[in-house]
Amino acid sequence: MTGPLLASLLPLPVALPIAGAVAAPLLARLHRQLAIIAGVVTLCGAAAILLLEAPSVFGGLVRAHYLGLWTPVHGRALGIAFAADPFGLIFALTAAVIGAVLLMYTLSELGGLGPRELGGYACLFQLVIAALIGAALTADLINLFVWFEVAALASYGLTAFFLERPIALEATFKILALTTLASFAVFLGAGLLYAANGALNYGQLHDALARHVTTPDLIALGLLVAGFATKAGLVPFHGWLADVHTATSGPVSALFSGLMYNFGIVAIGRLALQVFGLGGGAPILGLLLTVGIISALLGAIMALAQDDLKRLLAYDTISQMGILAIGLGTGTAAGTAGAVYHLVNHALFKSLLFLCAGAILHRTGLTKLPEMGGLARRMPVVAAAFVIGAASIAGIPPLNGYVSLSLIHTGLLDGHQYLPYALMLAAQVITIAALGKAAWLAFFRRRAGDYPQLEPLRPGMVAGLAGLSACCVAFGVLPQFFLGSVMAPAAASLLNPARYASGVLTGLARLPALHLAFDYVSPGELLSVVACAAAGAAAAWAYLRAREPAPVRLLRAAHTGSVNDYAAYAVAGMLAVIAVLTLAR
Amino acid sequence: MILVNYLASAALLCTGLYVLLTRRNLIKIVMGLSLMEASTYLFMVSLAYRAGSTAPVLAGPPAGKTARQLAHGNVADPVLQNFCLTAIVIGVAVTAVFLSVTVRIAQHYRTLDADRVRAMRG
After folding, report:
1. Is pTM beyond 0.90 here?
2. Which residues of chain B are within 8 Å of residue A561 when distances are taken between CB atoms?
3. Which CATH class is domain B2-54+66-116?
């Protein structure tokens, strides 16, 4: 296919799910499950179109399409640009493919719902995916804000969808309040950046900011980073996240945690690295590193302290988002490629784990870990999937987490960031302890009585779990292929903002090739994995026997569950981010 | 003078923020967020202001002026006003969702006190 044709196809992966979303409630009237099936078809269609773009874009091209053919004149863009670069394309592809898998899983798990419910569910689900693909492909700041709001509005609906658990209402109010606050920050940031530079197109903004960065620009960057950090659930903007996951069903949690929070990280990567050209003199990388480490540690500690399985996984998501921020904050080729790799890995293993938790909830009706036990014998498929997901997060070779975590470690050591490296390893140990504790309590511990109800898994659910597990293994055993053909070009796009900018403004640009090697049997990495796993197992064992340590009790007490307090943390974080960026130039 | 606009916008933002952080009544929290939203609109429209400018409407120019003169002359920035329109539409939708959730909470918990609607903590 020719280049212009490929470029003109770019809006379709967004338009297809939106069309599916509009049609979903109507299709559900024809036949109950038709809405979901049509959703799977539109998402597969979106993935197919994105795959058409893949060979040339992952080959190092940035290709742009201007909606309404409003092409830029003399480097000034008026219309909205949609641009495929390797970084955005891999996120869009992940969203479309995993979205289709999750919808298929939903059909199997929740297919018995009524037509109204299934129609509404399919509609909201496709809107979220459309917003994620749109955010990945857009090269226009206000368009990014619109996708932020589309994802947010659809996520409110999905959070409040299953009202048989009334805590869903409480969770919805929290996500509404915090995300609305974040949307103000994003809106003000976008407006300020426009007022200061007269541009919304990423490329044009990059060119303007490359000449000089003023204080209003940095305030805008602070507002944007704080807003998208709220979407990503980074500490201290994370208050709402765990509650949402406690209340929602498995596939919705998997969609949020696996895909939607990554939106925040993708937007931060775009703005901080590509638009601001690695910060433009402001300490944005150091800020990302700091926020990332705090999130990784706090998320892991809070995960260890939970006894609700989904809440535990939710806090672990905060920890993983922190790891992604650390990877972006290294500013090195290996670290950035590791962050992109981890983005895909997180989508895979966290969806898998939340589907496992949802399957347990739907089969047994239990959410609390102390009430579970002995599930390895009773639900072997779920147990195997959970162990694969947990081992992936733990970074155990040959699973995918090992590769991405090693790359981020390499990136930190390349940049001589020894303290962040040590703290990241500490977070890793606590994460292993938390997941080890969950696996032990739910699956491998002996349980005296039998379960009052225990339904078998349906074939579609088994297929979903098996597919995601297989992807976890594939991304772990073929690191050279994925690193060389996908992640290295994505890192090249993030680290060469000028090339990305020229691609967005002229319609076509070639990124420089970035060669990254991955040493699978590096003795240092293997040693650290073994040490972390041993320390994590010991920590889990100690934690289960001892009383809760005082610092953990304090941290838990700080999560008061009050929406006022969570908003206060977020506002304080926002002010701190702006202060750091403007004062420490 | 336009400074008044910025001051009013800041005052609205601070009022809304104060309500959001200190009031426990869910309806008041929604109202606080709406105030903050209004302050962002005022801020955007003020950013679009140019002293002595005309509206950016090129059709039917006033007597003695051509559309080309208007386009090259002093007009208010339409893009920021456009943002406001977009955000107002989104804001209405968000407020509607907010209020419907609040109604459901009131029906289920028989209270609007945020402090009594916090089963999930820690």
Report:
1. yes
2. 118-122
3. mainly alpha
End-to-end CA, chain B: 49
| A584 to chain B, closest Cα gap in Å | 25
Put simply, the answer to whether A559 touches B86 (Cβ < 8 Å) is no
pLDDT at B33 over 90: yes
pLDDT at A164: 75
Q: Which tokens belong to B86?
A: 């977009």
| DSSP three-state, residue B102 | helix
Residue pLDDT, tens place only, A201-221: 999 999 999 998 999 999 999
Q: Nearest chain B Cα to A163, which residue?
A: B104
Q: How confident is the model at residue B1 (pLDDT cuts 50, 70, 90)?
A: low
Chain B touched by A176 (CB under 8 Å): yes
B90 CB within 8 Å of a chain A CB: yes
**Given the structure tokens 């304080």, which residue do they identify?**
A572
Among partner residues B44, B94, B102, which is closest to A180 by beta-carbon distance? B94
Distance of alpha carbon B119 from the chain centroid: 32
How far is the C-alpha of A422 from the C-alpha of A121, rounded, in Å? 43
Q: How far is B32 from chain A (nearest CA, A)?
A: 10
Reported as a single tens digit per residue, the pLDDT across A238-254 is 999 999 999 888 899 99
| End-to-end CA separation in angstroms for chain A | 47
Supply the mean pLDDT for chain A: 93
Contacts of B79 in chain A (CB under 8 A): 194, 200
Q: What is the ipTM of this complex?
A: 0.94
**A150-156 own/partner pairs: CB under 8 Å, 24+ apart:** A151/A127, A151/A231, A151/A260, A151/A263, A152/A179, A152/A180, A152/A183, A152/A231, A152/B94, A153/A127, A153/B90, A153/B93, A153/B94, A153/B97, A154/A124, A154/A125, A154/A127, A154/A128, A155/A128, A155/A179, A155/A256, A155/A260, A156/B97, A156/B101
Q: Are residues B19 and B28 in contact, defined by beta-carbon separation less than 8 angstroms? A: yes
Give φ, ψ of A61 to 5 degrees.
Answer: -105, 150
Query: Is residue B108 over pLDDT 70?
Result: yes
pLDDT of residue B65: 76
Which residues in chain A touch residue B101, judged by CB atoms under 8 angstroms apart? 156, 160, 169, 172-173, 176
Kindly report the nearest CA distance between residue B75 and chain A, in angstroms.
14
Q: Has residue B60 got a pLDDT over 80?
A: no
Tens of pLDDT along A376-412? 888 999 999 999 999 999 999 889 999 999 999 999 9
Q: Which of residues 557-576 of A touch B (CB under 8 A)?
A: 557, 559-564, 567-568, 571
Identity of residue A223: L
- CA-angle at A403, arms to A400 and A405, nearest 5°: 105
Report domain extents, chain A.
159-583
Q: Which residues of chain A have pLDDT under 70?
A: 1, 279-280
Q: How are beta strands A81-84 and A508-510 bridged, if at all?
A: unpaired
Contact yes or no for A153 and B122 at CB 8 A: no
Q: CB-CB: which of B17, B79, B94 is closest to A194?
A: B79
Query: Which of the four pLDDT bands, split at 50, 70 and 90, describes residue B76?
Result: confident
* Predicted local distance difference test score (pLDDT) of residue A148: 96
Handedness of CA A105, A110, A115, A116 (dihedral sign): negative
Does residue B43 surpass a pLDDT of 90?
yes
Residue A440 DSSP label: I
The first and second tokens of residue A124, run together, are: 């909201």
- Provide the residue ranges of all domains of chain B, joining segments of one domain with +: 2-54+66-116
